[in-house]
Design a protein that fits this description.
A six-stranded mixed β-sheet has the order 6-5-3-2-1-8. It is an alpha/beta fold. The longest helix is centred in the last third of the chain and has 16 residues. Helices cover about 25% and strands about 20% of the residues. The chain has one domain. Helix 2 links the parallel strand 2 and strand 3.
Length: about 170
């Protein structure tokens, strides 16, 4: 497999969960010589900025401490109501997505889709149709926040995530 030409990218956005995969991705970029000024991290709060349900209560602060120590900006993003709301969704649209921006605002997009029903816990599977939490609470959130921010237009941006093949 051919490695990407990292020097050809203007910006690197790391999806940072605080786990070993996302921290490894961030460190790999820095060790490859990418300046911290070209990297930013987004911590997708899977609990939707509410009480802890799936994430450890210390996760967000841990991510902030890592990013601060490496001099990389960290922004938060989440789907309103988080994991619990999506899991219990019954006849309602998927919730809107919120994200922090570099200018200090919190933007909200989406949430006006058709009504739908989930009413199921995600399955352990590599199939994102079965393991919906990754697609709805992480992948879709990242895609929406990139599409919604004009600062990404006209820039070559690499989105870096830390999934393992078996996940």
């Amino acid at each position: 497999m051919q490695s990407p030409d990292l020097a050809s990218y203007d910006r690197f956005v790391v999806a940072m969960s605080g786990g070993k995969d996302s921290i490894g991705c961030l460190l790999t970029l820095l060790e490859a010589g990418i300046p911290a000024s070209k990297i930013e991290c987004y911590h997708h709060d899977v609990d939707g900025a509410g009480p802890s349900f799936m994430d450890w209560p210390c996760t967000a602060e841990y991510c902030r401490a890592v990013a601060t120590s490496l001099r990389v900006p960290l922004y938060r993003s989440w789907r309103k109501g988080g994991f619990l709301r999506e899991m219990l969704r019954d006849g309602t649209p998927t919730a809107p997505i919120c994200f922090e921006t570099p200018i200090g605002t919190v933007e909200t997009v989406g949430g006006a889709g058709p009504p739908g029903t989930r009413l199921r816990f995600p399955q352990v599977s590599a199939d994102l149709n079965q393991r919906w939490c990754s697609s709805y609470l992480k992948i879709d959130v990242m895609a929406a926040l990139v599409r919604a921010q004009e600062r990404f237009l006209g820039q070559r941006t690499m989105i870096v995530t830390g999934e393992r093949a078996q996940e």
